[in-house]
TrEMBL record:
This is Solute-binding protein family 5 domain-containing protein. GO terms for biological process: peptide transport. Keywords: Signal, Transport. Residues 1-36 form the signal peptide. It comes from the Bacteria. Its main location: other.
Length: 541
């Protein structure tokens, strides 16, 4: 192992290329429901059954996810609502985020990385860390894993999160050095997006294709099999980190049918389920523990900002002012959501109320349309088929009709929406959902997902050509580099205000994450604000 092994990315600040096909997988749209990373939720214990006996090692933990597995297990590319949490169990980063509070902890690192100076960090690998094929994890593997994510040829959706990285190098067989372009406050959180993979199994196209289906990591569980509706993992005996695999086996069933998930929990064939249907919450509380956490997961409107009249910000604002958000939340989410008063949900520590909040004001909406010279407006509103999005569509249609705007609804699966409808010349507006908070909760990360993305602001919203885009992007870059907490907070407030005022893509509401589990069956389980089911350090009872 050479002590000069390193990776120096080329022009990392300009690296904003996301996968063109992201719409077909979880994070971007209907399949995501990956909820936000700072919880203000609650766990209802008034009617839950008494907890079971003392937890023990061994046994099987069955669970039900609310989405089908899609995409691959390549951590540089994965974004599905099932695939990403599976990777958390199979692989490790230098640091990772805890399931319960989404704070970073030392994973492959022996201890938390140390800051050498303002732009230099060093991490030492955990002694005895091995991949699931028995080979040791090396610093060469670490450098390679970061190289893959930052290489433009990889087209990783994670690359924009790492714009602060100047160089990653192996100091020796145990130590890795990170050199930054500028001091970056969220370094320990943002490097968690890179999971370390064996270079020997991913350094050619043929080997990578095999790896995508049969991943090898250094985590506590290893993959046994994976299909769209079933993922099976088993304990990896060679793991020596802090996130234990106490169960011998994890079995994840995947069903978009809420009734199937509820029945599985109530019958005992599932120990935990994701996304309890809004209307079933009270019923499930009688037999299980239910927790709801305010999340980032958003229902949003996005416009084709290059098409008239949507290139006029007054038209976009008018369509927001026309909406009765209280009614939309009541009907679409049965109250388990919060109308947006900022791009971030109000449970996020970085939340600041935006200067523009869209209350229901039809008269103002009509006035803005008149100012913009729009006296008639007819268009198609494309929507994804996720339940709360689909339920919101008719109310939005009715609200807009009240101000003289006529829309037809076109509801499709996410893959069809992002591959066919949004790229077309006839596209005008989209109602969909999305949630990048599975990668972290920092304001910088969450803002960059949409507003520093060539895919979202360029190809989809067609807003990148608007001068306001460069102003927003510049202010975001300035905020991420500011080291004074109060000044950085003020800069993010300017970004929140700008995106709320421009609304090329903006949330209508943030959904709550509702998880249920049986405490008679498992011990140590904690609901994740990211909406994932995580069974690290969880025992069978």
């Amino acid at each position: 192992m050479s002590n000069t092994e390193k990776f120096i990315p080329t022009n990392p600040l300009a690296r904003r290329s996301f996968l063109k096909a992201l719409g077909a997988v979880g994070v971007v749209g209907a399949g995501s429901s990956l909820l936000a990373a700072c919880g203000g939720g609650s766990s209802d214990s008034d009617s839950k059954p008494a907890a079971g006996g003392e937890g023990k090692e061994g046994g099987e933990i069955p669970a039900f996810y609310a989405f089908s597995l899609s995409g691959s297990f390549d951590p540089a590319q994965a974004s599905s609502a099932v695939g990403v949490p599976a990777i958390w169990h199979i692989m490790e980063g230098i640091t990772d985020l805890s399931a319960a509070d989404r704070k970073p902890y030392a994973a492959l690192a022996k201890e938390m990385p140390k800051q050498v100076d303002d732009t230099t960090w060093e991490a030492e690998l955990r002694d005895g860390a091995v991949f699931q094929d028995g080979n040791p994890v090396t610093t060469e593997d670490v450098v390679w894993s970061f190289k893959r994510v930052l290489d433009p040829e990889t087209k990783s959706l994670l690359a924009p999160f790492l714009a602060f990285l100047k160089e990653v190098e192996a100091v020796d067989d145990k130590k890795v050095r990170f050199t930054l372009h500028y001091p970056y406050a969220d370094f320990l959180e943002l490097i968690t997006v890179v999971k370390v993979v064996p270079k020997a199994l991913t350094d050619t196209a043929d080997k990578l294709e095999e790896f995508k289906a049969k991943p090898i990591g250094s985590g506590p569980y290893k993959l046994v099999s994976a299909e769209s509706a079933l993922v099976v993992m088993e304990k990896f005996d060679g793991y020596n980190g802090s996130q234990k695999a106490y169960a011998d086996k994890l079995t994840w069933n995947c069903s978009t049918e809420g009734s199937a998930r509820v029945s599985a929990l109530q019958s005992g064939s599932a120990d935990a389920i994701q996304n309890v249907p809004f209307l079933n919450v009270d019923t499930v509380k009688s037999t299980a523990t239910v927790a709801d956490e305010q999340g980032f997961n958003l229902a949003f409107l996005m416009f084709n900002c290059s098409a008239k009249p949507f290139d006029d910000v007054r038209v976009r604002q008018a369509l927001f002012y026309a909406l009765d958000m209280e009614q939309i939340v009541k009907v679409a989410a049965n109250g388990f959501a919060t109308p947006a008063t900022c791009y971030l949900d109000d449970a996020n520590p970085s939340y600041q109320k935006a200067s523009t909040v869209y209350s229901h004001d039809p008269d103002k909406a009509k006035s803005l349309l008149k100012e913009a010279g729009v006296d008639s407006l007819d268009f198609e509103l494309v929507t994804t088929d996720v339940a709360f999005v689909k339920a919101a569509g008719p109310i939005i249609q009715s609200n807009w009709k009240e101000i003289g705007v006529n829309v037809t609804l076109n509801t499709l699966a996410s893959a069809a929406v992002y591959q066919n409808e949004v790229p077309s010349d006839k596209f005008r507006a989209l109602l969909a959902s999305g949630d990048p908070s599975i990668y972290g909760s920092s304001a910088d990360l969450l803002l960059r997902w949409y507003y520093a993305s060539d895919t979202w602001m360029g190809d989809r919203a067609r807003f990148a050509q608007d001068p306001e885009f460069n102003i927003i992007k510049g202010k975001l870059d300035e905020a991420s580099q500011e080291q004074d907490d109060s000044k950085r907070e003020a800069l993010y407030k300017e970004v929140f205000d700008a995106v709320a005022q421009q609304v090329p893509l903006y949330p209508l509401f943030h959904v709550k994450n509702i998880t249920a589990w049986n405490e008679k069956q498992i011990e140590g389980f904690k609901p994740s604000p990211s909406n994932a089911l995580v069974f690290l350090n969880v025992k069978k009872v």
